């Protein structure tokens, strides 16, 4: 057995400064652990308790219990976004970088992939031409502009509780009406309504999607707030569109 005896002196610190002495003691302890062969990244270690710490590119906030996008990451995203908007066209590589940054926000910004559907389409149509320039116009440009909302967005995506709550949400849509049925162990709710005039001419896939959204909104505050929901839908075309997310 090898006995490691460590003796250190802290100079220039008064005995009353217990907080600083504790910090130095903790640092020395980590140094000993590292020298014994354990892998501890001292450069990334925090020796005092904090409520938010950056890990793997995201802020982990223990009070909000959520991931937050670091300020530096938002600034780099804004620079790239505005540089794209300042040009009439950009290379495939630049647009891929923008899409990658958007996807990297998934832990902190809800439904990130829904904001870049046209970007995904543009990349999938031109992925073989690395030197090809993609024109930034129309809905593609609108999606890039929409990315500005994160500059002033103070919301967050809370962590989900590790529990499984079983509910049944059934939705259906016709050309003129939508309906939903919500069931739990002790609750059975049925509701429906007619489509407004501005929706009547929409495709059935759009109506199926609207029926799901309206159904979720009708029960979210009392029954399914801050939960992951599995939805069963009998419209295969809608399911294919949802799974594709524009890609």
Automatic annotation (TrEMBL):
- What InterPro entries does this protein's entry cite? Hepadnavirus_pol/RT
Instruction: Provide the protein name.
Output: Uncharacterized protein
């Amino acid at each position: 057995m090898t006995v490691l005896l460590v003796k250190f002196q802290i100079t220039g610190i008064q005995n009353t400064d217990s907080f600083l002495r504790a910090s130095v003691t903790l640092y020395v302890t980590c140094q000993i652990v590292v020298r014994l062969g354990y892998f501890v990244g001292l450069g990334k270690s925090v020796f005092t308790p904090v409520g938010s710490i950056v890990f793997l590119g995201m802020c982990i906030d223990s009070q909000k219990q959520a991931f937050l996008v670091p300020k530096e990451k938002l600034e780099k995203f804004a620079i790239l976004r505005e540089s794209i908007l300042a040009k009439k066209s950009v290379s495939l590589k630049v647009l891929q970088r923008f899409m990658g940054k958007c996807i990297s926000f998934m832990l902190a910004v809800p439904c990130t992939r829904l904001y870049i559907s046209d970007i995904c389409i543009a990349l999938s149509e031109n992925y073989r031409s690395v030197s090809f320039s993609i024109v930034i116009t129309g809905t593609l440009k609108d999606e890039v502009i929409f990315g500005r909302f994160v500059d002033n967005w103070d919301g967050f995506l809370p962590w989900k509780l590790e529990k499984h709550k079983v509910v049944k949400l059934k939705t259906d849509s016709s050309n003129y009406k939508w309906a939903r049925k919500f069931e739990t162990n002790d609750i059975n709710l049925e509701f429906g309504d007619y489509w407004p005039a501005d929706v009547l001419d929409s495709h059935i896939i759009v109506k199926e999607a609207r029926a799901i959204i309206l159904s979720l909104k009708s029960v979210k505050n009392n029954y399914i707030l801050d939960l992951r929901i599995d939805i069963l839908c009998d419209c295969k075309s809608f399911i294919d569109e949802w799974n594709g997310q524009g890609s």
